[in-house]
């Protein structure tokens, strides 16, 4: 989908505050509400806007431990891949999950309360998934940048 300047302005505003009203959005981009609504509807229908969510503060919820888990496997079959993805998807503590190129085959970002909870997650995962050759974890000492805003 081709985005014009107004689309980009609307998207930038919504990335900062998805609770802005239609009137506030329309006024900010010098449109009336109907054409603004039509643009937003088009952005939603095309999948550019996937959903509108509230961003929660993990520290305020006691989720203080971030781990990055890298996985190597010798089984690259489609069946194994599907099974692995289904299992990982069941864990709410996995915030992000990627298939990688390079030394490791998969990487996930895991957010939990502490090391004890990470260890519980780790043990559950490795006991449920067969064919893992190497599972390596590293732990974040400090988050230096975090954003959900995409560069427009």
Automatic annotation (TrEMBL):
Coiled coil segments of this chain: none
Presence of the UniProt keyword tRNA-binding in the record: no
One GO BP annotation of this record: regulation of DNA-templated transcription
Residue ranges of domain HTH asnC-type in the record: 3-64
Superkingdom field: Bacteria
A molecular-function term among this protein's GO annotations: sequence-specific DNA binding
Pfam families for this protein: AsnC_trans_reg, HTH_24
Keywords: Activator, DNA-binding, Transcription, Transcription regulation
One GO CC term, this protein: cytosol
Cleaved signal peptide residues: none
Designated name of the protein: DNA-binding transcriptional activator DecR
Organism: Vibrio cincinnatiensis DSM 19608
